Amino acid sequence: MNMLTTNPPAARLTAAETALVEAFSAQIGELPGNGAVIGTRDRLLDDLKKSGLPTRRIEAWHYTDLKNLLRAIPEAQATAATEAVAPLVDGATVLSVLQGVADSRAAVDGVDIASLKDRLVDGTAAAGLTALDKDDAIGRINGSFVRDGYVLNFPAQAEIAAPIELQARHAGGQIHTRFPVSFGEGSKATVIERHQAVTEDAALVSSISDIVLEEGAEITWIILQQQGLADTHLGQIRVKLGKDAKLRLFVINAGGKLVRQELRIEVVGEGAELTLRGVNLLGGESHTDVTLVLGHNVPHTNSTETFRNVVFDRASGVFQGMIRVAPDAQKTDAKMACNTLLLSDEADFAAKPELEIFADDVICGHGATVTDISKTHLFYLMARGVPENKARAMLVNAFVAEIVEELEEEKLVEALEDIVSAWLEKHA
Amino acid sequence: MLEIRNLHARIAEDGTEIIRGLNLTVRAGEVAAIMGPNGSGKSTLSYILSGRDDYEVTEGEILLNGESILELNPAERASKGIFLAFQYPVEIPGVATMQFLKVAMNEQRKARGEEELTTPDFIRRVKEAAAKLQIDQAMLRRPLNVGFSGGEKKRAEILQMALLEPSLCVLDETDSGLDIDALKIVADGVNALKSPDRATIVITHYQRLLDYIIPDTVHVLYKGQIIRSGDKALAHELEANGYADIIGQAA
Description:
The complex is a heterodimer.
Chain A: H1 2-6, H2 15-26, H3 35-51, H4 66-69, E1 93-98, E2 101-102, E3 112-115, H5 116-121, H6 137-145, E4 148-154, E5 164-170, E6 173-183, E7 188-197, E8 203-213, E9 218-226, E10 232-241, E11 246-253, E12 258-267, E13 273-282, E14 287-296, E15 302-311, E16 316-325, E17 333-342, E18 348-357, E19 363-371, H7 375-382, H8 388-404, H9 410-427
Parallel strand pairs in A: 1-5, 4-6, 5-7, 6-8, 7-9, 8-10, 9-11, 10-12, 11-13, 12-14, 13-15, 14-16, 15-17, 16-18, 17-19
Antiparallel strand pairs in A: 1-2, 3-4
Helix pairs in contact in A: 3-6, 7-8, 8-9
Chain B: E1 2-11, E2 17-26, E3 31-35, H1 42-50, E4 55-64, E5 67-68, H2 74-79, E6 82-85, H3 97-111, H4 119-132, H5 137-141, H6 150-164, E7 168-172, H7 180-192, E8 199-204, E9 217-222, E10 225-230, H8 232-241, H9 244-250
Parallel strand pairs in B: 3-8, 3-9, 6-7, 7-8
Antiparallel strand pairs in B: 1-2, 1-4, 4-5, 9-10
Helix pairs in contact in B: 4-6, 6-7
C-alpha cells in the first residue's frame, strides 16, 4: 500500500515527458538564475511532471493532444552554429538570439535593453516566470527551461521609428527564449519577433513574449514563425492593454511540424483597441494550433480579430478563439473572423470561436468559413489568359495579401508578401 | 473568323438544355449583334464561347479561324484571341489591378511564343489605354474591380480588351447599368478597336447600345436557336414591335 501511494500510476511518463525531466536534471546548476528563479523552475517542472503534457481531455488542448503529438525531445545542441541575418525590413535594429543565446550588443536610442539571462541571474525576472493557469503547459515548460532572451523597456513617450527585430535562429536542439517588454505611456514602436530554423535538424522551441502597453502606447507587434519541417514550436504572447493603448498584433505561421501559438490578451484599460490579424500557411504533415484567449475587462474597448488560413497537403490547423466580456465591460465592440482555404482533400481545419459575454450592452460577433477557391474568380482570371495553376496561386496569394496589406507600412507589407509568395511557390 | 455549327449545350450540373442547334457565322471585321428576350441563352452562349465549365457542349462544333476550340480551357481560348467582356465583372480582393493586367498580358504573350513586355512598356500601354477610357490612376491602384461602380467595371473590361488585343470580342450586355455618358465612353472604346482582322459579338437586350456600336449583322436568339438574321434594320424592328412578332413567325 505504502509503495503504491509513493509511486502513483500518474507518475508514468511518456518518452517525451521523461526526456524533459531528464533534460532538466542534466541542466541543474547550468540554467541561469538566483535562488528565487531556481525555486520557481523546480516548482514549474514539478507541476509539469505531476500533470504530464496536456491531452485532448483538457479542453484548451482538445484539438492539439500534446502528449500524443510530442513524441520525442531532440538532443540539446549547445554548440550548433548559427548567425544573425539581415532584418526583415531594411533599417530595423536586430537583437539576435542565436541557439537560444541573446548575443547582440546592439543599442537602440531611448530603449533600455538587457539580456534576460542577466535578469534571471539577479533574480528580477523570477516573478514573471509563471504559468497562467493549471493547463498552461507552455508557461511551465518555458519557465522551467528558459535560458535567455531580451528584456526591453520603452520609457514614456519614446517614439522609436525603426522597427526592432527580435531574431531567434537555431540549428536544432532545445531552445527556450523569453521576451518581457514594457511600453511606457504614449510610446510608439514596431517589434518583429522572428523565429527561424537554419537547418532541418529537429528542435523543441518554447518562447514567451510578455508585453505590457501603458496608457496611450501605440504598438505594432509581429510574430513571424518560420521553423523547420521537424520542429516543435510552442509560442505564447501575453498582453496587457492599458487605457487608450493601441496594439496591432500580426501572427504569421509559415513553418514547423507541431506548432501551438497562444495569444493571451487582457484588455484592462478603457478606450484600448486591439487589431489582431493572423495568417497560417500550412502544408506537409504539419499541425498548427492558434489559440486566442481575449478578455475585455473594462468598458469601452474595441477589438477585431481576423485569421486567414491556407491549408495544403495533409496539414491540419486549429483556431480556438475565446472572447470573454466581463460583467462591467459595457460598450465592448469585438469582431472575430476565421476564414480558411482548404486546398487538399486530406487537409483539415478546426475552428472553434467562443464568446462568453457577461455584460448586456456589447457588440460581439464571430464568423468562420471554410471554402475552396472561388470558381467564379478562377474563371475570370483564366478567361483573361492566365493558366489555371497560376490563376490559383494568384487567388491564394490574394486571400492572404488582403490581411497583410492592412499593415500599411509599405516595406513591411512587401517583406511579408515576399515570404508568403515564396512559401506558396514551394507548396502549391 | 467564328463558325458555330448545330451547337447543343446544357448546364453541366442538372442537364438543362439551353442551346438547341445554334448556327452562326461571324466574319473578320464584322460586328454581329445577338439580341433576344430574357432566358433565350444569350449569356450562356458567351460563357460557352469562353469555355466556362458550368456548361457542356453535347453536339455541334465551334470553329475559330477554322480550328475547333471545344477542347481548349478558358486560358487557352483567351490566348487564341477570344475575349469576353463580362456582364458582371467579378471583384477580386487582394489581386492588384496592375499586377493582374501584367500577368494576363504576359501569359497570353508567352502562350503565343512572344516576348514578355518590359515594365516600362507595360506601364506606357496601360496609361495610354486608360486615358482614352477616362480611367484614372487611382482606379488602377485598387484591387481588381473592388469598389468600382457599375460604369467603372464596364470601362475596366474595355480597358482589358484594348490591352489584350483579342481577335474575337464578345460583349455580354455591356450596356446594362450604364448611364448615357458611360455608354458613350464604352462604345467609343469598342469602336476604336474595330479592325478588318477583328470580329465583335455584341450581346444585348436593347437596341440602345446599337445606336453607338453599329452592327453589320443582327441575329435573334430564342430558345437556344438563331431564329432570324438581318442587318441593323432588324434591331429597329425589334425595338418597335418587340420580340413577339418574330417569335410568332418562327413558331
